[in-house]
From TrEMBL:
It catalyses: D-mannitol 1-phosphate + NAD(+) = beta-D-fructose 6-phosphate + NADH + H(+); D-altronate + NAD(+) = keto-D-tagaturonate + NADH + H(+). This is Altronate oxidoreductase. It comes from Litchfieldia salsa. GO terms for biological process: D-galacturonate catabolic process; mannitol catabolic process. NCBIfam families: PRK03643.1 (NF002969). It is an enzyme of class 1 (oxidoreductase).
């Protein structure tokens, strides 16, 4: 069978490069590149993308083998109808591995038409590495690489005011654009770069904070054989996502003229303040994902969809959102409820297999950013603890034991987190005292939480009580403590 490339896919087009993208991952390809593809086909945007691989190993070679092409499946509800559609995205001209071809990356910034820098380097990507140097090829961190590229651009065009970039980071961290700019400025200091460059970075470049939303499950490893037969060609970069999408960009309105997403009918909002959108999405959608994962997985389920089909786990998820997360948010209640209902519908999407274990990646830091604020706010507002969220924290500690009955769980988290749990569960003797010790150590683990959670009144007791139940009776029995409350009342 033929492989997908520009020879076999004759209708593909090439566009002049206007975008440099850091990240070749599933999300950017199913979200940003799909939007650029739409703008190319429905507006006069006419922009091609060069993709740089942010770390040494990744998919760039595969992307280049397919000459930038890949197939995107979008599956879910569109205009109230179930839609499953696919298309070949052709906006990526080529990819660069800066670890092998750094000069090629520098050259991209010499193109006067280059206008946008877009990134998604995961939550781990926007960091400051004090050992990064301007002379490195490349720098280790993404902001280090970006600073070096900006400097090359500044020198190439002698600081021309109109040669700056619109920078659109998509990392799911709070105020991503500001954080990125802050670190770029730190590198300017560290590398003693001239004031004129700093002024150019600040005045001629627009760093936007953005919030992205689309559930992307990635490469369909379970169904790739059927998909290949259906497509009639081999594509190693097939990506699957839902129909829903939203991109909120905090920045000046002129961005919509240069990046005409609205003309292409895309759900992109350019706003003055993205905070309410971010809080709502991260606390409700990502918060529910992260909180449901240990509970539903230990209950015996594998996907978000299955968790929504089971009456008990579905009740857990719904009550968690409506009774514990929403009351801690300050947006209009009706708006929050309607957003939450839409999220629950997306969780039920029958066309997308969203594996709980993929959501479980780095769960400790995700619980901190996506769920802990709800727990603290709920306690602050009501003087009580949100029982389902606390139950989920107990389930998280149980999950990191690394076993579902006799099955090993393949968990991935920072090394220090994995080491903490392996040392804690190693000496487990089944006693309640040992469970309390484990809970106390995890809650006091400030390296993850950035505060000592044992100071929250009643939290250690409640997490211990639930964990004892989960350990002794199993999740199917233990969950009744937090579902029957809502079912019975
Ligand atoms: N998949 C989704 O549904 C979805 C939706 C919205 C947001 N996101 C966000 O997008 C991010 C990426 O998701 P994905 O599905 O594309 O994953 P992926 O594994 O397909 O891609 C990860 C990308 O991040 C880069 N990367 C990984 N570690 C890095 C590091 N330490 N420094 C710099 N770059 C690094 C990789 O090179 C790769 O380009 C997630 O962290 C998530 O927060 C994902
Ligand atoms: O992608 P992660 O691993 O950061 O988080 C898992 C999910 O919560 C996330 O991917 C959501 O599906 C996404 O944020 C929806 O827009």
């Amino acid at each position: 069978m033929e492989k997908l490339n520009r020879n076999t896919w004759k209708e593909s087009k090439k566009y002049p490069v206007k975008v440099l993208q850091f990240g070749e991952g599933n999300f950017l390809r199913a979200f940003v590149n799909w939007q650029i593809d739409k703008m190319n086909k429905e507006t006069d945007f006419n922009g091609g993308v060069v993709v740089a691989q942010p770390i040494e190993f990744g998919l760039i070679d595969k992307l280049n083998e397919q000459e930038g092409l890949y197939t995107l499946f979008l599956q879910g509800i569109k205009n109230e109808e179930a839609v499953r559609e696919h298309s070949v995205i052709d906006c990526i001209n080529y990819g660069i591995n800066p670890y092998a071809n750094y000069d090629q990356l520098l050259e991209v910034t010499e193109n006067p038409e280059l206008r946008f820098i877009i990134s998604n380097t995961t939550e781990a990507g926007i960091t400051f590495e004090e050992n990064d140097r301007l002379s490195d090829s490349p720098q280790k961190s993404f902001p280090g690489k970006l600073t070096a590229l900006l400097y090359h651009r500044f020198n190439t065009f002698a600081g021309a005011e109109d040669k700056g970039f619109v920078i659109l980071p998509c990392e799911l961290i709070d105020r991503n654009g500001e954080k990125l700019k802050e670190i770029v400025l730190k590198y300017i200091e560290l590398w003693n770069l001239e004031l004129g460059f700093k002024e150019w970075v600040l005045q001629s470049n627009t760093f936007c904070c953005t919030l992205v939303d689309r559930i992307v499950t990635g490469y369909p490893r379970d169904t790739i054989d059927e998909i290949t037969t259906e497509l009639g060609y081999k594509d190693e970069l097939v990506v699957v996502g839902e129909q829903f999408h939203l991109w909120v960009i905090e920045g000046p309105q002129w961005i919509s003229d240069e990046f005409p997403t609205n003309q292409a009918g895309l759900n992109v909002k350019v706003v003055n303040d993205m905070t309410p959108y971010r809080t709502r999405k991260v606390r409700i959608l990502n918060g529910a994902h992260t909180a449901m994962t240990p509970v539903c997985y230990l209950y015996g389920l594998d996907t978000v969809g299955d968790s929504m089909k089971d009456e008990v786990t579905r009740d857990f998820i719904e009550r968690l959102i409506f009774d514990e997360i929403i009351p801690t948010l300050d947006l209009p209640e009706e708006e929050l409820k309607s957003f939450a209902s839409a999220v629950l519908e997306r969780f039920m999407n029958p066309y997308v297999n969203h594996y709980l274990l993929s959501i479980a990646l780095n769960s400790m830091s995700k619980f901190k950013t996506r769920d802990l604020p709800t727990l603290i706010e709920y306690h602050g507002r009501t003087g009580e603890l949100p029982r389902r969220l606390v139950f989920s924290l107990s389930a998280l500690i149980a999950l990191y034991k690394g076993k579902r009955d006799s099955e090993e769980i393949n968990l991935q988290d920072d090394d220090h987190v994995m080491e903490l749990y392996s040392s804690l569960w190693k000496d487990y003797d089944g006693s309640e005292d040992r469970i309390r010790e484990i809970v106390t150590t995890v809650l006091a683990y400030e390296k993850n939480w950035e505060l000592d959670l044992t100071i929250i009144p009643g939290l250690t007791d409640m997490v211990t009580e639930f964990l004892v139940k989960i350990e002794r009776s199993g999740m199917k029995v233990a969950i009744k403590d937090v579902t029957k409350i809502s079912l019975g009342n």
